[in-house]
Amino acid sequence: MIPLQRPRLQPHLAAELARHTAGIRQAGPNTATGRAAWHKAVRQKAQLRLLLRQMAPGLERCMYCGDNLGTDIDHFEPIALAPLRTFDWQNHLLACAHCNSNQKRDRFPRDPVTGEHLLVDPSREDPADHLRLYLDSGEYDPLTAKGEATIDVFGLNSRAELVRGRRMMFSVVKALLLTWHAAAPGDDLEYADALGLLHHADVLRAVLRLRRSPGVAEAVLGPDVLLALHQLARAERRFR
Predict the structure, then answer these.
(1) What is the dihedral of CA 89, 91, 93, 98, to 10 degrees?
(2) Tell me: the pLDDT tens digits for 133-155?
(3) Any idea where the domains of the chain sit in the sequence?
């Protein structure tokens, strides 16, 4: 999971979403009216999906697991719990079918004392404040209660394919860095483009963050990969 930038809605789309929200309020906000209105809003959903695909990591990957293709518009706070947020743009994220329908469903844990939600919203906060990814193992370590709940709800460690995928992607990132460095650093950014489109974008971000801890970075990456990483950051603004 990586932080994401949410674009502003175009005025006409924002107005249409507000109109749907008003309709739910008038009909009596509940799960049934929210889901019925969402089911009918075919054109607006298509426009929202396009925006979400543009802000998704890699090649339109799920904003939760980062592995599978993002196919569903997920309501971060579920319709069943907040029908008036059905058309709230700030409540929409792109998810794969597994994360949306098998893992999260209507789960939305809250702190029993404060009532604060306990899932990381990558469009509002930096997941790295709540989750630490260990590159060698491919597993996440929770840093906060939010991190713990997010790992549990999305099965970030219990889904073996995710753990193995992150571990393998770490090898791919290192290999691409070395290949780019050996080919033509500073001139040919084909490999840099490939890095930016990989699934499991959280692996690349964890590697990039290692530059802040040179001693740890050399131990985890090795001196050659670390040198390539520094040169890539100098050559390509988005990786700084």
Answers:
(1) -140
(2) 999 999 999 999 999 999 999 99
(3) 1-106, 131-235
